[in-house]
Each structure stands twice: as C-alpha cells, then as structure tokens.
Specification:
Elements (H helix, E strand, L loop, with lengths): L1 H9 L6 H23 L22 H17 L3 H25 L12
C-alpha cells in the first residue's frame, strides 16, 4: 500500500487499488521468473496481491523507485499518454537494472555447478 499511496499522491488517477495490486503482482511475477528464483534458494513465487499488505519482492532501497515508476508507467499507458509512459518506463528500466546488477554482484547463481568445465 505504500507504493500505491505514493503513486496516488504523485500521479492522481482513476484506477482502483485492486487494479494497481494486479499490476504489482504481474511485476513481481516477472521479477521472480527472471531473477529471484535463480539467485535465492528459499524464494517463493508470489501469488495475487489482495489486501495491499503483502510484502513485495524487491527490497529497499530499490523498491521505491522500481514499484512507483512501474505503476506510473502503467497508469500512463492506460491513459494513452505515450510521452509520459516513455519517460516513466525509461526511469523504471534504469532502476530495475541497478537492482538486477546488485543481485548479480551480491548473490551466486543457483546453477553455478552445471556449466561447462575444462
């Protein structure tokens, strides 16, 4: 609910909390499939977010910019505001890349032993 509340202050919109929770669930599902499951042993695939009290996958300090920029981009996309969407998605991609780089630097890939050996 923190991310949704912040976005609603920054970008007043007509979309329901339920819709924003669906967008966040889709994003966390992608983050899990693309990154988390390969680097975290005890990772559990997120389900649907229903109450807004569920914990999102991306930790601070990366969470705020990633989730807020993503929600702002989705709002702009649904409103057919392509310039705003392009701006927000570029900022989202940069924030996500910083998170991805941090995970790759700080964790070992779970499939580390199955590669080619000389």
């Amino acid at each position: 609910m923190e991310a949704i509340g912040q976005v609603d202050v920054l970008e007043p919109n007509q979309y329901s909390v339920e819709q924003k929770l669906k967008w966040l669930a889709v994003l966390d599902g992608q983050v899990f499939e693309e990154l988390i499951r390969d680097y975290y042993e005890q990772a559990v695939k997120p389900g649907e977010y229903r109450t807004g009290e569920e914990e999102l996958l991306i930790p601070m300090p990366y969470a705020q910019s990633i989730y807020c920029r993503y929600l702002q981009a989705m709002i702009a996309a649904e409103n057919f505001e392509s310039a705003k969407y392009n701006q927000q998605i570029v900022l989202y991609n940069a924030a996500y890349q910083q998170f991805r780089d941090w995970v790759c630097r700080s964790r070992r890939h779970r499939n580390r032993g199955s590669g080619f050996r000389f």
